[in-house]
Amino acid sequence: ATPTAIMVGTEKGAENGVLIKDAESLEKTHKADVVVLDKTGTITEGKPAVTDIFPARGYEANDLLTAAASAEKGSEHPLAEAITARAAEENLSFQEPDSFRSITGKGVEAMTGKDKIHIGNEALMNDEQIDTQSAAAKAEELADNGKTPMYVSKNGRLLGIIAVADTMKSDAVSSIKQLKAMGIEVVMLTGDNEKTAQAIALQAGVDNVIANVLPDEKANHIALLQREGKKVAMVGDGINDAPALMQADVGIAIGTGTDIAMETANMTLMKGELAGVVTAFTLSKATMRMIW
Ligand code: ADP
Ligand code: MG
Q1: What family is it from (predicted)?
Q2: What is the pTM of this model?
Q3: Ligand 1 atom nearest to CA at 214
Q4: Which fold has domain 3-45+168-289?
Q5: Which one of the ligands is nearest to 235 CA?
Q6: Whether the complex's predicted ipTM surpasses the cut of 0.90
Q7: 150 φ, ψ (degrees, to nearest 5)
Q8: What are the tens digits of pLDDT across the range 182-206?
Q9: CATH number for the domain running over 49-165
Q10: How far is the CA of 171 from the centre of ligand 1 (A)?
Q11: So which residues are the catalytic ones?
């Protein structure tokens, strides 16, 4: 594209909330075969709320929520915020944990007094050899409804499940539909479990799902798609999306997300709306043809 075309394209982008950092990305975007979308904070609002509290036999919902909230008080993960907010709403008193360890992509471990608490996904419970049998069917049912179930245990015993759900962005379905109409393959990439991810993908209209991805594996999945000969645009908001944004042919950050994602990306969608991805493709095409 000519310098004038690039300049106009960049200006049009800015007017429409698409901040384009480099000319090259504007020229490359329209060539992408695949758009990879992070789930939490990209397809969804990224503000999960607790939907279900399912105590194991012999426990009360409040025991479960208090233990979980205490452990999560040390965490800044959106799932943690959902749990502490719910506990506060229920007027439960929960303490700051004495020690706390976040287990990336799996959950947290915390000590409160003499109690060791774990909260997280099935992989974490497997690592800790905690028996989840009594709640497995419930977890599956919750996940099939697009909710994220988290197991909570105290001193090696399962206390129950807390599920959270996140709202889909209002323009997610229409934006994904438009991308597909342009012949682009749309993939969802998430650290969440397979069933929850599939349920949300179905609602969103995404073609393919890559779930259970640990944060440091996201970039590898982009590289795998590239090795198949595909040009990849990645859209994400989180700290854990930054390496994938870097790896992608075009990295697009959600402007309501983390600074590191925006610093790494070639473009930022200022309004945080997914419609911005469609705008980026349209602008890129127009820039190459000098038609607006
Ligand atoms: P996402 O792609 O949703 O940002 P993460 O890689 O942060 O996923 O986390 C993957 C999974 O690990 C979550 O779906 C959840 O089951 C579990 N997990 C991570 N952090 C926490 C936490 N603070 N509390 C409970 N579970 C967690
Ligand atoms: Mg995210």
Answers
A1: Belongs to the cation transport ATPase (P-type) (TC 3.A.3) family. Type IB subfamily.
A2: 0.93
A3: 6
A4: Rossmann fold (3.40.50)
A5: 2
A6: yes
A7: -120, 130
A8: 999 999 999 999 999 999 999 999 9
A9: 3.40.1110.10
A10: 24
A11: 38
